[in-house]
Give the backbone structure.
Amino acid sequence: MYIPFVRRRKQIVTAYYFAGCAAVVLWLAMFSSGCAGTASSETKQGQRRRGAMEGAAPVVVATAVQKSVPVEIAAVGNVEAYSTISVRGQVSGQLTKVYFHEGDFVKKGDLLFEIDPRPLEAAVKQAEATLARDTAALHQYEANLARDMANERYAKSQAERYGTLFRDGVMSKDQMEQTSSAADALSQAVAADRAAIESAKADIAAARATLENARVQLSYTQIRSPIDGRTGNLTVKQGNVITAGSTELMTVNQVQPIYVTFSVPEMHLPAIKRYMAQGRLQVMARAQENDAQPEVGYLTFIDNAVDPSTGTIKLKGTFANPERRLWPGQFVRVTLRLTTKDDAIVIPNQAVQTGQDGTFVYVVKPDRTVESRPVTTGGRVDQDLVIEKGLRAGEVVVTEGQLRLAPGSRVQFRDDRPGGPAGRRRGPRA
């Protein structure tokens, strides 16, 4: 009896053990099912969020701003010297001295060259001697005139006395006629003396002119700079013989002030004339380097005819060029400022697209969708573009990522951050 009781007891314990295990397994299954449901819910929400983000096109945007902008015309110009002088010898001779180095800046009146002056110095001395001789001859003729005038007066008075004596019968007719002839001869001698004096004066005037010309020719042996400027290449070296008027020694370019010549389409001519009548128009010239500083000048010349072959009009600006940044022959970027337009709408130029119907921009609406809006563009200001029609200040336009867009597309700003601002908007520079 004892053995069966023990077996029955073991069976009861085993049954309770398996029942407890079943309960634990059931509880674990229920817990796992709840956890799996929660995780599945969270996964679905993440997928929906990522789906919404993946459906929006990433773009960069900018805000249209309203500001005053200049109305300008851009062109390419060429720098010209304000004045260019070709230095040539005015007398022939040997080039004995050069007083400058090639490329030096010289002032007006500075001595540049010297030609052998000895032949012309001799010509000056000869002309001075001729003048002195003619002057002495004049004094001699004047003395002769005074002598002959005194003799004429005596001969006339004697002829009068002899005439009276002849009438009184005291003097013979022959003696009276001799005294009268002598008086007439002296009168002619006085007239000859006066003519000789006039001739001597003419000789003196000619001698003085010859002397002055010789002195001028001598002055040409020293060649001086006619303007302030920079010297060019020396084409004739010291010691060579030059020919008057035919040998170019070098050139001098005046670079302060300096000209910049450029051409603009003829359609701008009415506006240029209209604004120029209101005051001087500012011209800015900048070298081809990106970091070059602009020089500021003023429009001083409009050509009298439009070039029919190109449809352009030539203009010229004058620049003080204090630091000599502008150089003759240099190509520069020119900006002619006509006026300043107040309250213009400005956006970055990369926001404007060109389609079959013209220019347009993608405008971002408050719900982060875009619309294609046609616009009318104006002038360009650095990297920005003036919008004449189609936009208002404060509207947001797409500047990068337009290729992925169509009207109604949803966009996402590239600089969005989780928990951060809705996206920074890069606007045009003020």
